[in-house]
Design a protein that fits this description.
Rossmann fold, EC 2.1.1.37, single chain, about 525 residues, 3 domains, seven-stranded mixed β-sheet, alpha/beta
Length: about 525
């Protein structure tokens, strides 16, 4: 039995331009019949209206993750939901809409859209229901004018690149709190689109970059042809599936986060920027069969690329880009050990190659940044210090953790003359067994919880910003409650380091200028024509 799936018009068919996330193997599986709805005896599905015919024109094969909607009569909506739950378990729709004729539209999560595209995991009951009482429209996105929603970007940005001599334009995908923006704007960059799905991170972004920042939500909800012309695509694509601190499920992560790099593939194919800069955890490089030679002082170690990273690099190269990468430790410009892999691509027709030019053993390559913890601590009488102190039960738990593993308490101290360990999103959680704390203030105040001394403390919100290279002018909104402070620690732990982005961005611009276009090399001819 087959589901009647709606596919969009091919380019040149006269259909409205859009793009969906069908992978070719899904359509070839026999589940993608593009016929009009079934009119067999007993069918309860309405013939296509003008609106649903418009929805059927949304697909182009740009390779993003599967998206789509199911349209169903209201009387059948509860049955549809029950059948979907029986196949998927618990999930949440991205949204719902009602069409003028009364039919309901369910915007599917990634897992449901994948199931309907591929047929994997479908029950016979859901197949029969979809054939007779509902219709799946692959490639329809939440931000669609059919539903009265369409993204609005900076005035005059859509359809053109940066003016010659006016720097360059870029988009910041999985933007977080704007680390790429802070790194690239001093180089002449102008951000015309930022996408971030997390509500708290969006609030921080807006507090710093304002209502005209080009900020939108979920990038999977936006058609690529609505995105302004860009010279550079940047992204810190979700790292949790690849981090050594998690389950490392990679592209098989059940949340779908490990597949989100396909959205970057979609944007590269559709938007054709001259260059891209992506960031992720260093563990991505060796996942699934890779390895790293032993690191020694002053030597970063050699990498053997694993199959996951090899596949991701191949996907980016398949978009028509020459791709290179480098693992960089932020310790050379910041008071933190933070290794990340930076992936750079130049459009192949430009015939450019990245010249990293970063001697990571040379601490002078970003000498204007503080490089030890003492330099970033707030005064011991600052208001934020008191709220950063460990609660008594938390301090007791640290004692117990150290005793159980025969580790001295001093191992949990951040050295004032050294570096902090990698700041992670769960730093502020009491259950984190790897967090380290401030045991002594810059003025010599001891914090050991003994003899009336205060207990050790977390780095304050501002200190965490400094450890990551965020300027003191960066607004940290609403940290007056424990929950809001936790939101900030999560946001800053997931951020990119602006000073490193700036240095890598400088190298990219130098390569593009030296490549033969002068100051216009990056800011002209962006459409790829």
């Amino acid at each position: 039995m087959q589901i009647h799936m709606s596919e969009g018009a091919e380019e040149g068919d006269g259909g409205e331009r859009g793009e969906g996330s069908n992978h070719s193997d899904a359509r070839d599986s026999g589940l993608g019949a593009a016929a009009e709805p079934s009119t067999s005896a007993g069918a309860e599905r309405k013939p296509r209206s003008e609106v649903t015919s418009r929805l059927a024109s949304r697909v182009e094969d740009h390779g993003g993750i599967p998206v789509g909607v199911v349209v169903v009569e209201q009387a059948n909506a509860e049955t549809f939901c029950q059948l979907l739950v029986s196949c998927l378990g618990k999930f949440t729709f991205k949204g719902t809409d009602r069409l003028p004729d009364g039919q309901l539209v369910f915007h599917l999560p990634h897992s449901a859209a994948t199931m309907l595209e591929t047929g994997a995991g479908l029950s016979d009951e859901l197949v029969e229901f979809m054939e007779e009482k509902a219709e799946f429209f692959s490639g329809v996105r939440l931000q669609d004018d059919v539903f009265g929603r369409a993204p609005s970007f900076e005035q005059g940005s859509q359809g053109k690149a940066a003016d010659a001599g006016a720097g360059f334009t870029f988009a910041e995908i999985f933007a977080g709190i704007g680390g790429f923006r802070l790194g690239l704007e001093p180089l002449g960059g102008r951000c015309v689109l930022a996408s971030e799905i997390d509500k708290a991170a969006r609030e921080t972004y807006m507090a710093n970059f304002g209502p005209d920042s080009g900020l939108v939500g979920d990038i999977t909800s936006i058609y690529a042809d609505k995105i302004p012309r860009i010279d550079m695509l940047t992204a810190g694509f979700p790292c949790q599936p690849f981090s050594c601190r998690g389950a490392q499920r990679g592209t098989e992560d059940p949340t779908g986060r490990g597949q989100l790099y396909f959205e970057l593939v979609r944007l590269l194919k559709a938007c054709r920027p001259k260059a891209f800069l992506f960031e992720n955890v260093a563990g991505l490089v060796i996942m699934d069969g890779g390895m790293r030679s032993r690191r020694e002082k002053g030597i970063a170690g050699e990498f053997v690329v694993g199959r996951t990273f090899e596949g991701i690099l191949g996907a980016f190269e398949g978009c028509g880009y020459d791709v290179s990468w480098k693992v960089i430790n932020a310790r050379h410009c910041l008071p933190q050990f933070r290794e990340r892999v930076y992936i750079v691509g130049f459009r192949s027709d430009l015939k450019l190659g990245m010249e990293w030019g970063l001697d990571i053993n040379d601490a002078g390559w970003a000498a204007d940044c503080p490089t030890k913890i003492r330099d970033i601590l707030e005064p011991s009488d600052a208001e934020a210090i008191a709220s950063a102190e460990l609660k008594a039960d938390h301090w007791d738990a640290v004692h117990a953790q150290c005793a159980a593993s025969s580790v001295p308490l001093t191992e949990r101290a951040i050295p004032l003359e050294g570096k902090a360990p990698t700041l992670i999103s769960s730093y502020h959680k009491g259950s984190n067994y790897t967090s380290k704390y401030v045991f002594e203030e810059a003025d010599g105040t001891v914090r050991d919880g003994e003899g009336g001394n205060p207990r050790p403390r977390f780095l304050t919100p501002r200190e965490c910003g400094r450890v990551m290279g965020f300027p003191d002018s960066f607004v940290i909104p609403g940290v007056e409650t424990e929950q809001k402070r936790g939101n900030w620690y999560r946001q800053i732990g997931n951020a990119v380091c602006p000073p490193v982005i700036r240095v890598v961005g400088e190298r990219m611009l130098e390569v593009m200028v030296a490549g033969g276009g002068g100051s216009q090399q990056i800011s002209s001819g962006i459409s790829g024509e």
